[in-house]
Amino acid sequence: MDKFLLGISLFNDADYFSAHDAFEDEWRGCNNNDKLFFQGLTQIAVGSFHFASGNYKGSLSQFKKGVTKLRQYLPDYKNVDLSLLIENITEIIDILESNFDKKVNMNQIDIPKILMVKTN
User: Fold this and answer.
1) Which of 24, 51, 84, 107 is the most buried (most CB within 10 A)?
2) Which of 83, 70, 25, 22 lies closest to 44 in space, CA to CA?
3) How far apart are CA 12 and CA 66, in angstroms?
4) Domain 3-108 sits in which CATH superfamily?
């Protein structure tokens, strides 16, 4: 399994730290056209790790950076459904921004999976 698919599998298994490593390996070895895509996935994985660890400030920062990069590849890239991923992460960003200074139970918020688009 290549590092890209491994990263997706790790991310979807909530092993965000290891997913970050796999995406980062791809980013370091990719061509210029793919660089921001892999940087964006790396930042989404890091943001997810921070979110799961309760570091909401770090999570918010990484999610915003990742979404900004991934938007350049909409609606999908390398068969990743970026429209759905960005929509779901943006919902978390909105919740974090609107509740940042409040005591809100973030444990009820699920980090989305990275889904692939169906190809014919």
Assistant:
1) 51
2) 70
3) 17
4) TTHA0068-like (1.10.3450.10)
- What pTM was estimated for this model as a whole? 0.93
CB distance 41 to 23 below 8 Å = yes
SS3 119: coil
Among residues 89, 97, 106, which one has the least CA distance to residue 57? 97
The 3-state DSSP class for residue 76 equals strand
pLDDT at residue 42, as a whole number: 97
* Three-class SS state of 77: strand
- Position 101 pLDDT exceeds 90: no
Which residue has 């960003």 as its token pair?
93
- Residues 56-80 have pLDDT tens digits of 899 999 999 999 999 999 999 999 9
